[in-house]
Amino acid sequence: MDARLADDLARMPELLENVRARAAGILAGLGDRPAAVPPVPSSPDPLPASGIGLDEALAEFAERWEPGFSGSAGPRYLGFVTGGATPASVAGDWLTGVLDQNAGPGVDSSASDLERETITWLRELFGVGEEHSGSFVSGATMSNTVGLALAREWLGERQGISIADTGVSALGKITVLSGTPHSTIYKALSILGIGRDSLRTVPTLPGREAVDVDALASALDELSGPAIVVANAGTVNTTDFDDLEAIAALRERHPFWLHVDAAFGGFAALSPAHAHLVAGLTLADSICVDLHKWLNVPYDSAIQLTRRRDLQVRIFQNAAAYIGLPTADPDFVHLTPESSRRLRALPAWLTLRAYGREGHRSIVEHNIAHAQRLGDAIAASPHWRLLAPVRLNVVCFTLDKPTKEALDKITHDLTASGTTFLTPTVYAGTPALRAAFSNWRTTDADVERIAKEINATPYKDRE
Question: Do the domain assignments include residue 435?
């Protein structure tokens, strides 16, 4: 054994205590850490021939790299709908690395059973029925990809063919309909060979991002065969929700696969005042929910749910002598694109077991209140204006006289201040900013500090 490796093995408890102390220091300082750090170009060092051991490598990381890392786990990071990581989920992520389970085949540990239990808990959390099963994947992109792969296979089934066997070309033209599709839907369509151009956007309700169900019905009327409909439970810019029950009811007249992108909006189910927004979620054929957003588990973590696990096995089965064929209760190696899977379920299991439905409901409701608080401050400002009502946890706003150049400078200045991090967007053709609240650490004091900095920045820009 390499001498450095042998020495680290002998000192493992001491070294892990050093890592624990450093991690605890980082977590304790999240409130003071810059929300984002503008990257500085650097050249990679050459691969070392000889190692320096964990202690020295950790010290080098702390000096060379850690200062450039953002406070994305902290309370004032409002970009990308990024949650933090609860104490329980941090512990779960550490144990995931320590135990290093292969969560694909279910022949050598109980890891698969823990994942199944976690999926059951999440399904109940979102009010989705027992007819749905699911699995953990890396994020919303992969969850949407799995859901649309199932839709593609369903289209083939209606023609008496298996696309998993014959290929997508056997289907001919595929039509995908959606009101305000997320960018990952286009990416998934590209990956699956369905093609970005297959997606037809359907008119939305006036002043909304929610699809006009009558317009969707008309678009379906024009088709000669089955289609795929992608509905939204929480759009990126304004957290708008499609009427899932009304869309599902259209299947009485039109054959289509209903995929619901509920990446973060699915968590509205936890708030009694907002649960109506996801009424009908259980009617979907496939569902995407991101967990490293509002569940506040570390990257990367999401789930996919479907009522057609048989199609899922048909697509993703990985038969090999050392793996075995799928059974009536198939291993996860037969259900997801990845054959090699870390146990993403453990951080989610621990945070759900530690804090339960009520603990996570509290996170959701506090974040909704924080978004409303910032929205009120924006609405009262003389130089900012809201572009949409604050429906859930996202505030979409712009300058009184917006230009892309002015907003780009403000975004840069806000990032440089370290106070908060916002992402730019375009809503209804207007350049804008987007503040997304999903971190369990955020407090009213953080919101006041963010609002003060946002309101002050345009004045700095005009000096």
Answer: no
